[in-house]
Amino acid sequence: MTNGAEGFDSVPSSSGSNGSGRYEIGLIYLGMMHLHFGHPKQALQVLTEAVRFSQQQSNESCLAYTLAAICNVLSEFGCSSSAGVLGTSFSPITSMDTSLSVGQQLFVLLRESLKRAESLKLKRLVASNHLALAKFDLLHAQRSLLSFGPKASMKLRTFPINVCKELRLCSNLISEFGYESSTMTTDGAFSTTWLNNLPKSMDSPLLPQENGHRNNCDAHRFFTQLSTVPKSVLQLLGSSYIMRSTAWEMYGSAPLARINSLVYTTCFADASSSSDAASVHAKLIQHLAVFRGYKEAFVALKVAEEKFLTVSKSVILLVKLQLLHERALHRGNLKLAQQVCDELGVLASSVSGVDKDLKTEASLRHARTLLAANQFSQAAAVAHSLFCMCYKFNMQVQNATVLLLLAEIHKKSGNAVLGLPYALASLSFCQSFNLDLLKASATLTLAELWLSLGSNHAKRALTLIHGALPMILGHGGLELQARAQITEAKCYLSDPSYSVFKDSEVVLDLLRQASDELQVLEYHELAAEAFYLMAHVFDKLGQLERREEAAASFKEHMMALENPQDEDDPLLNMF
Amino acid sequence: METDETDHVLPFQLQFDKPVASQVKIAEWNPEKDLLAMVTEDSKILLHRFNWQRLWTISPGRNITSLCWRPDGKAIAVGLEDGTISLHDVENGKLLRSLKSHTVAVVCLNWEEEGQLIRDDSKTSSSYEDRTSRFFPPAPRVPRMPGVVSGDTSFMEDSEDSYGELSNSSYQRFNILCSGDKDGSICFSIFGIFPIGKININRFSVPTPFMDKQTPRQISNSSIYKVSLSKDLCRLIVMCSGELNENTESRESQMVGQGMHSLVLDTSIFSKRKSELHQLAQQASNIEDLTEVIRASLSVMCKQWSDAMRTFLEKFDSLSTLIIDHALDSSPQEEFLSLLGGARTSSAVHQFLVNSLGEVGVKRVLKVICGTAKELQRIVLDHLQPAAEIIGFRMGELRGLSRWRARYHGIGLDEMLINNATEKCGMILVQIERFMRVLSTVEQQFSNFFNWLLKCIKLLMQEPSDQLLPYNSELVVIFLKFLYDQDPVKQLLEVDHDIEVDLETMQRVKELVQFGGFSDCEYLQRTLAKEFQQMEDSFKEAFLMPFTTVSRKMLYEDLLALFPLPSSSASVSMAIPMSISSYEVHFHQCMGNFLHLCSIEPSN
């Protein structure tokens, strides 16, 4: 998403030496290319050579860029062997204690890189380093999680405030390029826009005499087209908005995640690289699917597919597979779900190297598919191996998700007691990493687990749900909301002190909302549950007609769940 | 606990010790410390310690009609003659906040905190955390207006510190400030800063005590003397004077008589929904503070920029006159263009550059404009953008609350209105980003243009020009075409402008609707200032809903006619010494109940 490469276009001028720095720059580009194609080892080798050569030539700025590139490699791949490769020649690394974890190494390097860039006044590099630091702060707790335990856990936290500060520092770039760029713009760079204007004003002189009645079609061009902010600056600023959006997805603020994506697509669309633009559109599509259902998301996906036809198919393809999988799971079409899951797995280990995040996601989805098929032990096995992998690569954020999945597996298999420790572990991970939305969802699972232990735990479950409800309703998707509402209704119904006759509307309102949301999602299994509960309540109240209605809906959803039909599916036929 | 300090001995003792210029009319003890706040006849507030050490004196400039302490004793609420209620810091008497909720004199204030006694809280309270402080650095402050005298600035800084503390109410216990005015209106505000309700006792219909009469009565021409909220926030006792009229359809309302009444109002909404109201007040008052930051930023920016542009216009105005003087049929832009093209240098331009502007002049204008642009960028980056971002976050939190219908619908948090406000927050963020880009471009264009002018002057004066910064001639052309006689920055900062957006961008915005973008595609045609106005309106609308909903839920419960008053004195506000106290009485069921005792000392 954000790599240090955006700033490189300014190397030639800012290094100040014409011609002599070409070799180092070439090496940096080669290193970045290796990284792009998934060869971190070679990338590091090349970059080491770049370090050696820049030191020989005492090309300070090139050294700073190389350092940033090395940080990038480390953050992408976290090579534990990096110290060995680099150790011989590069002072910042040799001075580092070898016992430091990869995360700490990266942190030290990032700081060092930022310091160098600041002292050399490489503004773009400074901004890009701030961005890298923000990304680091987003994903890493300040102390290594190796000492994870009940007592140490409270101290281990990520600091979202730092992320916010780094992002704001990155945005400062826009006020700093002012003086430099008049020299940097090559003559004629604006002539294209200039010429575009010309045909319209051909008949009139270049500067109309009647200044008062200047036609506005000239004036408005200034706002959009004649922005002289350099593209590299805009790309960095845009990246900061993508980073904000990602951060808010993790921290749990749905409006801000959406708004930041929208700011990017509205203001930076003209300068953005197509892969960035595609990934932002992918974010928006996912947001749509989660909050407004699949129908709208697929319409948007169709548009996006046409828009990004040639360039970065993979991001859009990924979203498509994700949506198809989610929807297939909801509709109970497990065969399709498995098929999509396999396709994702293929995508994860393509020619360009193994994408770890994608691989994690693929096996996560695999486990969920198995869970939906009630193959609990297989699902648990997949989840366990996934947990081991995440642990090995220090992917703590994913760990929280996997733990939650394990809790779900135990919940569904009827072993609520076994599920509790997993849910609690997930909760504490979420707390350490400020993953508030995931935490709310883990709290919900915890409540469900308590509830399944018996009706005497209903009150405790209800308190848990009420604590998480503002988060779930404000920032959680339709599925999460509906689940919370159904569980809340179940808590009321199983609470012995609650009487349906006295206050039936509380439960009915919850179930009604939940069933509306679930019908948008076509989530048959849960919708059936909502209607089942509804029918029960109506039965107790003696409202037979409405009971029959709910029962009919229940039957409808159960039928749909039993025989999924995808032949006449309009959404699938779109592709 | 409300006690009216009407002991006549104390003021006389004070006069022995430190003579006060005029009579003390109100005095209140601090609930926590040994501090006595007094109001004198000449509208000064004095704060004394127990040993008569004077801590501070302030004079708000208007007639003070009432005073009370915040329950934690860290602030004083002062009711003024014009209906304003202002809060002052106990440390130094600085004005923290002022709120004009009444139209006539505020005659009584009562600030009550929820009681210590919390019954079965596990069921009703939800542990809700304000996440903002975890995710954001401290909220930005109002930017300082340049050129403010240093004495003033220290005042601003101080007051802002306590200002920020005032809104951070997450650790505070829930409390409500009630204020009553001369016209029978009672206002309620949570933490003294977030108005949550207003009622007028003249509108209540009072059932007659006699069974045979069905017609309800109404109080008219009432004036509040005292209000007191019970410790459990369930009941409000109002002492008021007024006429109790019979209200029937056929006859004219029949006057029953002028008198003193004691009213009991049901305010149980405050205790039933206190954690909900607490959260609402906390988020909403913070949002209002941040809106204030944006407003101030915009006005500071607008002023600074127009000052800078005036300097530019003043300097370059003489060129047009010179052109006319030299009888040339052209515009300044054309003259500059031909200078750039190297075709000819007209005598007008020559004279303008060399004589009237000069190298020093160019440098000065360059410094003014680029310095101002930098200043504006700082304001946007340090104040405007962060404020808008935090507003967006807080609105998102409120959105979550508003969707919890079972809890929050009762206090009037409306999902649609909050959604609308959230959309507006998003639009303002886009607008700020666009403004920043325009501003940066304009700055760059100006500096490029002036660099070129400097070079021209050097050439015209036949001096060496190799020391100067390089320029881009294409940008000079663009500057002359688009910026010389237009000011896009100013346009964006003013409300009444339409920004024309090119088709490409419009298309992009429309396409985004499919991706969940803002459904209002026209928003880019508005200026930044206009967008801010609309955002503010949407906030007002969203927060008005809880205000009216809660106001409607405060109901009449009981009325006790105390004693008649001579009707002549009704118009004159007269002092009737009285006090209301509430006591907790335990019945057998171990249920706390509150009883009110009113004591009146009929002096006339």
Largest sheet of chain A: 2 strands, antiparallel
Read across the widest sheet of chain B, the strand sequence of neighbours is 13-14-15-16-17
**Amino- and carboxy-terminal Cα gap of chain A:** 27 Å
Q: State the total count of DSSP E strands of chain B.
A: 19
| Oligomerization category of the chains in this entry | heterodimer
Which structural category fits the helices and strands of chain B? Answer: alpha+beta
Provide a count of the helices of chain B. Answer: 14
Biggest β-sheet strands, sense, barrel of chain B: 5 strands, antiparallel
Strand order of the largest sheet of chain A: 1-2
Overall outline of chain B = elongated
In percent, how much strand structure appears in the residues of chain A?
under 5%
Which features characterize this protein?
A: 575 residues; mainly alpha; two-stranded antiparallel sheet; B: 604 residues; alpha+beta; five-stranded antiparallel beta sheet; four-stranded antiparallel beta sheet
Word description of this protein:
The complex is a heterodimer of chains A (575) and B (604). Chain A is mostly helical and 575 residues long. Chain A has 28 helices and 2 strands. Chain A has helices at residues 11-15, 22-36, 40-57, 60-77, 82-86, 91-94, 102-120, 123-139, 160-171, 181-184, 191-197, 216-224, 231-251, 254-267, 274-292, 294-307, 313-331, 334-348, 356-372, 376-392, 396-412, 416-433, 436-452, 458-475, 478-494, 504-521, 524-541, 544-562; strands at residues 349-350, 353-354. Chain A has a two-stranded antiparallel sheet. The radius of gyration of chain A is 27 Å and the shape is elongated. With 604 residues, chain B is α+β, with helices and mostly antiparallel strands. Among the domains of chain B are: 204-267 and 554-600, no CATH class; 274-550, no CATH class. In chain B, the strands form 5 sheets. In chain B, strands 13-14-15-16-17 form a 5-stranded antiparallel beta sheet, with no helix packed on it. A 4-stranded antiparallel beta sheet of chain B has the order 1-2-3-4, with no helix packed on it. In chain B, strands 5-6-7-8 form a 4-stranded antiparallel beta sheet. In chain B, a hairpin with a 3-residue loop joins β6 (75-80) and β7. In chain B, α6 (274-325) runs antiparallel to α14 (528-552) and α7 packs antiparallel against α11 (473-483). The longest helix of chain B is centred in the middle third of the chain and has 56 residues, at 347-402. The radius of gyration of chain B is 32 Å and the shape is elongated. Residues 1-7, 117-126, 149-162, 250-254, 569-573 and 587-593 of chain B have low confidence and may be disordered. Chains A and B meet through α9, α10, α12, α14 and α15 of A and α7, α8, α10, α11 and α13 of B.
